[in-house]
């Protein structure tokens, strides 16, 4: 059985084993992949700080150090995983898909084990060791082992730039669905108002929630594996293996990658710090933790409203242009929130909805940026490095996650937040509001400037690179 490449660069199987064409099945499958990812990633991003401080009694400063230190480990594990998937021999089900099958259960188990409520009764040093080991095992090894192959897989599901844009959209929909489930249900499950009117956390429910989400993650990963197919293959020619320094120097010349890495780092800092601080904002400023469910729902609604139109927006304006505009809108709204010092939850929700329209516009196309950058790297260097490019970007996202968690912990300590206190002072509550609005607003504006003035892949450049690679694939298939 032989392979041919059609006029769009799609790999086809001759004879009776002809590969099915790209379609809705792949989009839905890829959507479920990020749905599964975010059952652990978003739960950790939004609530792990709360679990560590409110349930286990750790200080925000200690948790911040943990999140920052873990990223040093990720600097090695992320890039190493990218190189592994780039250089391993493909299995019969592809180069990237097998990792989803192999790593789905380890990710779910390690994510669940991070939220064991009875650890709060252990002596301090044992409790601290538990937190360090379980967090590193999930974040730096198991999650890395599935997320990098999953993210890299988009570039081999189809070479068509329109297909990849649709995969980015469906991936963002998957993340939004997970955000909807986690953002709306978790506050209703793990928070409660005590007899004195204070907002308290229910430790056992944290553990049970993590267990259920772990099971749901495995189901989602299974759907991703069975619904998606890899269609683009690349001949791995024997050549001198690059050193780490040579690899980094090559990637260091990739201007679009460097720009997106900077943008992603700042964007994740803004989004995840805002999400983390929202828990404390509604606990201590608005004093209505369950209202956080409604706010999270409203925030995600903007993404779903935009999703049906994102392909036309991206093709009409260009991905770079649309993404930059979205960040400008989000930055203006959050800076406005800071100056208004809103006390009304309904008014706060309306403004958050407008801000998340901008963030949603960017997030719906962000993964298509990666596949464009992978193509750019191949055009410039002649080497296809899907896993490595995605690993560098993934590491940047984790740094953003760490900065959000670390800065959140440091800021809580700096503004006088007391973990053991049933309620915070009005001054601390006002400072929480400032952090939850001003820092995201500034960060979103920084992302706008990066994408507008430093990211070079305009719509015309992307189309030119796609044409070059389609011609290359046809020439390779004719040899």
Topology:
Layout: E1 3-5, E2 11-13, H1 24-55, H2 60-87, H3 97-113, H4 124-152, H5 154-157, H6 161-190, E3 191-193, E4 199-201, H7 203-227, H8 244-252, H9 255-285, H10 291-306, H11 310-317, H12 319-340, H13 345-381, H14 386-414, H15 426-453, H16 459-478
Antiparallel strand pairs: 1-2, 3-4
Helix pairs in contact: 1-4, 1-6, 1-7, 1-9, 2-4, 2-14, 3-4, 3-7, 4-14, 6-10, 6-11, 6-13, 9-14, 9-15, 10-13, 11-12, 12-13, 12-15, 13-14, 13-16
Could you walk me through the main structural features you see in this protein, from its secondary elements to its overall organization?
Helix content is 76%, strand content 3%. Helix 13 (345-381) packs antiparallel against helix 14. The protein has helices at residues 24-55, 60-87, 97-113, 124-152, 154-157, 161-190, 203-227, 244-252, 255-285, 291-306, 310-317, 319-340, 345-381, 386-414, 426-453, 459-478, and strands at residues 3-5, 11-13, 191-193, 199-201. The chain has 16 helices and four strands. The two termini are 16 Å apart. Strand 1 (3-5) and strand 2 form a beta hairpin. By secondary structure, it is mainly alpha-helical. It is globular. The longest helix has 37 residues, at 345-381.
Strand order of the largest sheet: 1-2
Radius of gyration: 22 Å
Question: How far is it from the N-terminal to the C-terminal residue, by CA?
Answer: 16 Å
What portion of residues is helical? over 70%
In short:
The chain has helices spanning 24-55, 60-87, 97-113, 124-152, 154-157, 161-190, 203-227, 244-252, 255-285, 291-306, 310-317, 319-340, 345-381, 386-414, 426-453, 459-478; strands at 3-5, 11-13, 191-193, 199-201.
């Amino acid at each position: 059985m032989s392979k041919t490449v059609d006029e769009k660069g799609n790999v086809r199987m001759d004879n009776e084993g002809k590969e099915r064409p790209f379609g809705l099945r792949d989009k839905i499958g890829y959507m479920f992949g990020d749905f599964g990812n975010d059952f652990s990633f978003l739960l950790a991003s939004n609530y792990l700080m709360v679990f560590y401080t409110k349930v286990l009694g750790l200080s925000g400063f200690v948790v911040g150090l943990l999140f920052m230190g873990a990223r040093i480990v990720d600097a090695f594990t992320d890039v190493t995983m990218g190189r592994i998937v780039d250089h391993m021999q493909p299995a019969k089900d592809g180069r990237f898909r097998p990792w989803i099958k192999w790593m789905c259960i380890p990710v779910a188990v390690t994510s669940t084990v991070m939220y064991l409520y009875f650890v709060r009764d252990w002596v301090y040093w044992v409790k601290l060791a538990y937190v360090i080991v379980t967090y590193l095992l999930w974040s730096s090894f198991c999650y890395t082992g599935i997320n990098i192959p999953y993210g890299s897989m988009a570039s081999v599901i189809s070479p068509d730039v329109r297909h990849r844009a649709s995969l980015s959209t469906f991936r963002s929909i998957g993340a939004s669905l997970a955000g909807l489930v986690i953002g709306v249900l978790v506050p209703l499950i793990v928070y409660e108002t005590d007899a004195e009117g204070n907002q308290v956390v229910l430790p056992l429910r944290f553990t049970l929630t993590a267990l259920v989400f772990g099971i749901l993650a495995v189901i989602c990963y299974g759907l991703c594996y069975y619904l998606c197919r890899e269609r683009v293959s690349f001949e791995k020619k024997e050549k001198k293996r690059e050193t780490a320094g040579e690899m980094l120097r090559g990637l260091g010349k990739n201007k679009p990658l460097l720009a997106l890495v900077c943008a992603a780092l700042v964007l994740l800092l803004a989004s995840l710090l805002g999400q983390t601080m929202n828990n404390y904002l509604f606990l201590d400023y608005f004093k209505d933790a369950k209202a956080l469910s409604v706010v999270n729902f409203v925030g995600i609604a903007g993404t779903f409203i935009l999703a049906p139109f994102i392909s036309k927006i991206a093709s009409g304006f260009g991905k770079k242009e649309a993404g930059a505009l979205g960040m400008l809108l989000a930055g203006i709204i959050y800076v406005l929130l800071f100056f208004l010092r809103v006390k009304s939850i309904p008014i706060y929700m309306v403004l958050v909805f407008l801000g998340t329209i901008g963030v949603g516009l960017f997030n719906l196309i962000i993964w298509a940026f990666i596949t464009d950058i992978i193509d750019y790297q191949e055009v410039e260097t002649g080497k296809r490095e899907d896993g490595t490019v995605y690993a560098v970007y993934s590491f940047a996202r984790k740094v953003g996650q760490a900065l959000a968690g670390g800065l959140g912990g440091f800021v809580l300590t700096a503004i006088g937040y007391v973990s053991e206190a049933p309620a915070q002072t009005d001054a601390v509550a006002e400072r929480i509001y400032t952090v939850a609005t001003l820092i995201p607003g500034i960060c979103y504006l920084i992302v706008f400037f990066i994408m507008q003035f430093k990211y070079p892949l305009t719509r015309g450049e992307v189309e030119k690179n796609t044409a070059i690679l389609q011609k290359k694939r046809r020439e390779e298939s004719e040899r």
